[in-house]
Amino acid sequence: MYVKAKFIVCTFLILAMVSLGGTAFAKSEMVLKFAGQHAADHPATIQMHDIAKEIAEKTDGRIQVKVYPANQLGDYSLVYEEQIRGTIDMSCISVPSQFDPRMELLYINGYVADYDDAKTVFAKDGWLFGKMDEFNERLGVKLLGFFIEGMIGTGTTKPAKDPLNPAADQGVLIRVPNMDVYKLAAEAMGYKTVTIPYADVYQAIQTGVVNGVNGYPVAAAYTSLGDVLKYWYMTNYSLEVMNYMISKKTWANITPRDQAAILGILSRATTKSIENAREIDAHYMALLEKKGVKVFTYKKENLAPIMKACATTWPKLEKNMTKELMDEFRKELSPK
To answer: Tens digits of per-residue pLDDT, 90-115?
Structure first.
């Protein structure tokens, strides 16, 4: 009788454990890999952790998200390719253009002069989001939102002659990223340009090979080049932007209710990144000044000539972007 009773108790315990295990599994139906390219303490990575936590909360634990910062799963090009395959689920990365050159649409200069503009331009119901989502969808990746790291300016070791006058020769040779959108815009603003690998920029400035840089948000300028720059012109001619994305193969396995929750979370994250970027810019400009760098800031109306000069370069981008796309871009985002 004792043996029989013991057997019944053990059977009950096993069934209870199976039941509990099934419940636990139901609460965590998916574990998503979330890849990032920035260091663990970078604002983008911090926000990735916040997003992961909120997704778990809003889906009642059905979806768990594990964050992999600092290129742990590969650089942004590899991560994007793996998202196409479905082997990496989510990302917060620079958008690669080798799969579709029109992806450089994000990096065109001269259409966002301040963070109030950015909130409208990068909104989920905006034209830019729709276009970038379209291009990503064709490749098997869904756009969820943007991370705005900060406004881009120009840092130099000698003063620009007339930085708000694009018709002037600024008398400064600056390093630009190896992309037409940056080279053309810098030259339209009166700078001479050269392309140098990112890793060699500090030494190039230190040794006088170049007199400065273009294409850096202020936080990156401070952390990477604060010891060698003497002047910082916060011209806001461009933005450093990352994409929040998810593999369409992963997205197809998420219920409509949880999809809606995720889209809402990422929409709020985009807005939050814009608000934080304004504070981050101000913080790092203050730190540059403490290092002895002379910082120049401007009102939006003062930047209008620069924005218009950048816009004059847009026809030259039609070769890779297509005329049709650039016509749409001009109609939707030309500076007023």
So the answer is: 999 999 889 999 999 999 999 998 99
